[in-house]
Amino acid sequence: MTQHLRLHALPRPVQAAAQAVTIGNFDGVHLGHQRLLAQMSDSGLPRTVLTFEPLPREFFLAAQAPIRLSSLREKTDALRHYGADHVVCARFDARMAALSAEDFVREVLVGHLHARAVYVGHDFRFGAQRRGDFALLQRLGREFDFVVQEQPPFLLDGKRVSSTGIRQFLEQGELDRAARWLGRPYAVCGRVRRGDQLGRELGFPTANLPLESRPLPLRGIFAGRLHSEIGHWNAAVSIGLRPTVNGKTLVLEAHCLDADSPNLYGQQVRVELFHKLRDEEKYSSLKLLIAAIHNDVEQVRQFFLPHSSQAHGL
Fold first, then answer.
1. 253 belongs to the catalytic site
2. Can you tell me the distance from the alpha carbon of 191 to that of 251, in angstroms, rounded to the nearest whole number?
3. In the chain, what is the straight-line distance between the N-terminal and C-terminal CA atoms, in Å?
4. Which residues contact 72 (CB under 8 A, 6 or more apart)?
5. What is the pLDDT of residues 174-220, one digit of tens each?
6. How far apart (Å, rounded) are the C-alpha atoms in residues 253 and 249?
7. For residue 262, is pLDDT > 80?
8. What is the pLDDT of residues 274-304, one digit of tens each?
9. What is the b/e burial string over 197-210, where b = at least 16 CB atoms within 10 angstroms of the residue's CB?
């Protein structure tokens, strides 16, 4: 279950029983996050993840904050998949930002979440102006009767796995490296909306996911796979503004290969991205656009020939 809480109006506790708690952004829920969740199982307690909305960096940096790897829903689904029993989403506002480290522990970790074991990353900071550190958390643990466990950096090929690194891989079109650090293909989830039907008119019907309020760390044309309740298909995926037809808003369009125009309107779908084919381009005519799409679809077919058609994500 997911709860949204404001500090000045805390709802009833998640559970009356003791909890193992971890705190953080968990953007992308990468291999390091997954290792932390696995480590929490050693406590024998229900595993509770405390995260924030908006993310603290978004509260402080606003438009200058890094683009998220995952939406709140995507993050929550991934956390559950990797073992979280509860996901609690705290509203990060001015009062939360001003809360001292001691009051955060007293009111949130102990008073609300009944923490008896707290698991944090090696660089964890908390409380107003990030003044709380691991040593302070340990001292407060002794005071409030909870144990504290620190996870060292998670290394892969000698490099620390991080959301920042994954974001850079995606921006550079290196989806295989991003997938290696995520432990699964990078994916975008959303509800399919009815578009302007241009793809259908051009002979390539698409499932459209509007992204007006959801910037992504990558754009272009990709080989991907669409997962829905009614089926799963390899797909040619476009993420961009559609400059040839003077598009103004960001949209993800997925053309399902070897599918008889499945009716996906209103469905929640997940679109995995495996390989970037090219950047988005503006063509001088629809004829040239159609030719480019034909070529993209053929490249997607060729990409999947040596690959398993089975999904490996969530």
1. yes
2. 12
3. 18
4. 53, 89
5. 999 999 999 999 999 999 998 776 667 777 889 999 998 889 999 99
6. 12
7. no
8. 999 999 999 889 899 999 999 999 999 999 9
9. ebbeebebbbbbbe
Residue 204 pairs in a beta bridge with: none
Q: What is the pLDDT of residue 199?
A: 66
Strand ranges across the sheet with 2-5: 2-5, 86-91, 47-53, 19-23, 115-121, 147-151
Q: How distant is the alpha carbon of residue 20 from its chain centre? A: 23
Query: DSSP for 121-172?
Result: ETT--BSGGG-B-HHHHHHHHHHHT-EEEEEPPPEETTEE--HHHHHHHHHT
Q: What backbone phi and psi angles, to 5 degrees, belong to 43?
A: -70, -25
Triad 69, 93, 73: Cα angle to 5° = 30
* Contacting residues for 5 by C-beta, under 8 A, at least 6 apart: 11, 88, 89, 90, 91, 112
3 strand-pairing partners: 88
Of 253, 272, 280, 298, the active-site residue reads 253
Percentage, residues of the chain above pLDDT 90: 79
300: CB partners within 8 A, 6+ apart? 223, 224, 234, 235, 236, 257, 277
The answer to whether the predicted template modeling score (pTM) of the entire model surpasses 0.85 is: yes
- Residue written as tokens 């144990």? 147
Count how many residues are written for the chain: 314
Please name the residues in contact with 52: beta carbons below 8 A apart, sequence gap of 6 or more.
Answer: 25, 89, 90, 91, 92, 96
